[in-house]
Amino acid sequence: MPRSYALIGNPNAGKTTLFNELTGTSQHVGNWPGVTVEKKVGHLHGKYGEAEIIDLPGIYSLSPHSIEERVSRSFIIDEKPDVVIDIVEATNIERNLFLTTQIAELGVPMVVAINMMDEAEREGDIIDIDELSLQLGLPVMPITAVKGEGVIELMEVVGASGLMDLVEEEASHLYHDGEDEHGHGFHDSEDPDEHRRDHHSDAEGRTNALIAEYKYHNHYKGPMVFQSTDGQPLTEKQETENAEARYAFIAQVVSSCVVKGHAAGEQNSSDKLDRVLTHPALGIPIFLAVMWFMFHCTFSEDFLWLGIPSPGVWLQGLMEQLVAWVSTGAQAVFVDGTWAYGLVIDGVIAGVGAVLSFLPQICVLFFFLTLLEDVGYMSRAAFIMDRLLRVFGLSGKSFLPMLMGFGCSVPAMMACRTMENENDRKLTLFLVPFMSCGARAPIFLVMAGAFFPEHADWVMFGMYFAGILVAVLTGLLLKKLVFKGETTPLIIELPKYRAPRFKSLGLALWKTVKDYVSRAGTIIFVMSIVIWFFSSFGMGEGGFGMVGMEESLLAVAGTALAPFFSPLGFGFWTAAVALITGFVAKEAVIGTMGVLYKVGEEGAEGGALSQGVLAQAGFTPLSSLSFMVFSLLYLPCMAAFATLRRESNSWKWTFAQAGYSVAVAWVMAFIVYQGGALLGLA
Amino acid sequence: MTYLGVISNMTLASARTGGVYTITACSATGKARARLDSLGLVVGQRVHVMSSSFAGLILDIKGSRLAVCKDVAKQLTVMQLQKDVAEAGGVDA
Known about the structure:
The structure holds two protein chains of two kinds.
Chain A: E1 3-9, H1 15-23, E2 27-31, E3 38-43, E4 51-55, H2 67-79, E5 83-89, H3 93-104, E6 110-115, H4 117-123, E7 126-127, H5 129-136, E8 140-142, H6 151-159, H7 163-169, H8 179-182, H9 192-199, H10 236-257, E9 258-259, H11 269-277, H12 283-299, H13 311-333, H14 339-356, H15 359-375, H16 377-390, H17 399-404, H18 409-415, H19 422-431, H20 441-451, H21 456-481, E10 491-493, H22 502-521, H23 523-536, E11 537-540, E12 543-546, H24 553-565, H25 573-581, H26 588-596, H27 611-617, H28 621-633, H29 638-648, H30 651-678
Parallel strand pairs in A: 1-4, 1-5, 5-6, 6-8
Antiparallel strand pairs in A: 2-3, 3-4, 7-9, 11-12
Helix pairs in contact in A: 3-10, 5-10, 12-15, 13-14, 13-15, 14-23, 15-22, 18-29, 20-21, 20-28, 21-28, 24-25, 25-26, 28-30, 29-30
Chain B: E1 9-11, E2 20-26, H1 30-38, E3 46-53, E4 56-61, E5 64-68, H2 70-74, E6 76-80, H3 83-88
Antiparallel strand pairs in B: 1-6, 2-3, 2-6, 3-4, 4-5
């Protein structure tokens, strides 16, 4: 069995930086069983020893009130890592030590790493590491993870064969001053439970070494606290008493080991910046300007009015060329008209290629998001948007994903990862697909252009607004029915502003690319083949085989589905088929119509879908409106569907979203069509 | 530092920018209470208000900056430390 270390600490304490330093790119990212909390596992770089390292979620406490806290707590208690490395932010020792005391109380062998020592020095803080170690009864090591300083020394202590043996040898001086009071690692002949009872518990049942299985527990000198051992949660009074005891101990430790360079309440440079960036009146306009710039860099065809495409658009063009090049290359290999040609060219390359073509823009968006997170702006954005979103039952952290939903649901849902509250995250994931993404715009452009040429802009605006309205109402509904009483008031730490670190930016970007490509290679690959099969095969003249789309299984399905759309005003098979192919990518709705209505050789040219063509197919101005509403709201596309599955880690939630969105789309389109008919519009 | 006088019994929601307060009671329970506890918003804790507006408050607690919405601030009863002492600063334990 390789040794296992767990990494734990407050958010912003530099946990990710240390994890990256320790493991490089050899990390595996997954989920903790049953929850959407991210689980990162990696192997130590050779120079740091031989062990598996588990990155626990960033948390402020181990009290079992949030999923992240429960995951961390049960990992330590059930999996019993060999050593827990607790990262403490040097400039924020007092608050960070609250978690430290809670870990230490479990009795687990641990090492405290005081991170960002360079920043503390710059602030003029003085930290007496040896004294801190003595007072806590735990090994304490100073590090600066960003620069890799002290990490070797830290890992030497962590990896010392039998860390607590080492402590035992030094019992006479450094870590073990309170031996009589608190006992020590018990001997082989000793019964662990007995040892804990005798040395680590008091008359009221409190303990400061919960897990008896550790032969060498730590030598923590903090107060004994109430622990829930029989699955019964602690009473509120016990929890409050625990917190008070811990803070009293911490205050005493800090007062003798730490001298702050700045007085409490004194304005530092971050505070000065915050006077502008979180200003009650200026904060929101500044945030919107930042967002505008981010979208501009990602989606604009006319970058900074220079007449050149933005980085996102430029890179997307390159990616499309690459896909086209692969497609051309493949066309030379296969014989046109055969099923193999169709499968590879029209199925796999067209489907996977369409999804991959989003990748560059997703990367650009993610670059900016990671940058904003890294410099510390994201928590400010959540704070300034919170009041506005609270009205709709959402938290400030939902704003950004919702806004990104106007671009593309996929990165928007991926951005939900920054939300620490699981319920908020699930709720936001559910709502994001209602924000009208860029791929839906062509549907509105074509339809509104054909039937409402005078008011196309208003129709467009109305569609975007309808999406927001549905999202808001759905949010309120879910808050009432599913997440009852789960209003999470905003308390958010505002970390100090920092210069971006390009190494971590690069790693985050690489992770995004890897995630996205692996998804395109699996679920989307399979779905593309399925859709292609249904659109190319059917009962032709010579029996079952390859046929045109009009005779395909998809057309059969469209005909079967058509009556379902009759009350909405577009109960004909072509509309149904267009909507089905829209599941592959929303752009395909218009493309399919082009093919089915045989407009031009290219078919996909939306402009050729004139009012005449659409009217001949069966659309009226009113039914075009209801069709637009339906397209806006029904099913997310398959890339979004797959992302929702992955980010929510739940098929149930994914299907709930899909089912709900179809139902809402139907009802809304019904209201538009039938309501319009009642008002005498047609 | 000694408390030089309680000016009024108020909640943190009506605190003003630059003020220094001590938390005297907390009405939050359960999960919300645990979260306040873990972030250091406990009875007896001194709080420096870095900014206060309709949008919420930014607090200096144990050297870290916490942004809280008004709903959270309303759950915390505080007493104000006398102004000039607070402004003199630097007398913290």
